[in-house]
Amino acid sequence: MTDTRIRLVEPKAEISEADVTRLVHVFYGRVRADAVLGPVFEARLAGRWDGHLARMVDFWSSVARGTGRYQGKPHLAHRGMGLDAAIFARWLALFEETARDVCAPDAAAFFVDRAHRIADSLMIGLGIGPKALRLPG
Ligand code: HEM
User: Fold this and answer.
1) Residue 133 reports pLDDT greater than 90
2) What is the number of the ligand 1 atom nearest to the C-alpha of 55?
């Protein structure tokens, strides 16, 4: 019989605050230089990148270290940007590449797993991508 239980990837070693900060800063540095993602982020974050980076460090610190520092509403934050499945795919590819470049292998696997889960959730909320709810009527 097929085992359909969901397996959460957990890091084997503790992820430090320095690991989180490095990942976030290198990732958004690459986002800003990316031909697809750069303009989408710049349109929204011009002049307030520092606050975004600090918020994203808090977000990933909460996810990876359970620090509870992030208390925002990511679903609301992503509305009104015209995001589609292709932009999410580019975000995920760049995030995965960055995590593998800057993190230990088990930490990278953890971050990539969580990024995919959260991206799925965001896309479902935005009604885009293959898992979007398509209600009758
Ligand atoms: C298509 C891909 C994505 C784009 C273009 C994008 C873009 C953005 C932008 C522009 C903001 C700033 C909103 C604002 O302050 O006005 C933001 C916030 C945020 N993003 Fe994304 N994002 C993407 C995917 C993701 C994914 C996959 C995650 C999580 C794994 C994520 C997590 C967050 C969080 C936590 C915030 C902060 C929300 C808040 O509390 O204000 N984003 N994103």
Assistant:
1) no
2) 37
Q: What value does the mean pLDDT of the chain take?
A: 94
According to DSSP, residue 87 is labeled H
- Specify the pLDDT at position 134: 75
- Residues 132 and 110: their CA atoms lie apart, in Å, by 24
The domain made up of 17-126 has a fold known as Globin-like (1.10.490)
Which residues lie with the beta carbon below 6 Å from any ligand 1 atom?
37, 40-41, 44-45, 52, 55, 59, 72-74, 77-78, 83, 87-88, 91, 115, 118-119, 122
Transcribe 101-114 into DSSP letters: HHS-HHHHHHHHHH
Per-residue pLDDT band at 2 (split at 50, 70, 90): low
pTM value > 0.70 = yes
Mutate to test the pocket of ligand 1, among 32, 62, 78 (most ligand atoms within 8 A of CB): 78
- One-letter amino acid for residue 125 of the chain: G
Whether 76 and 92 have beta carbons less than 8 Å apart is answered as: no
Domain ranges (residues) in the chain: 17-126
From the number of C-beta atoms within 10 Å of its C-beta (0-12, 13-18, 19+), residue 99 rates as buried
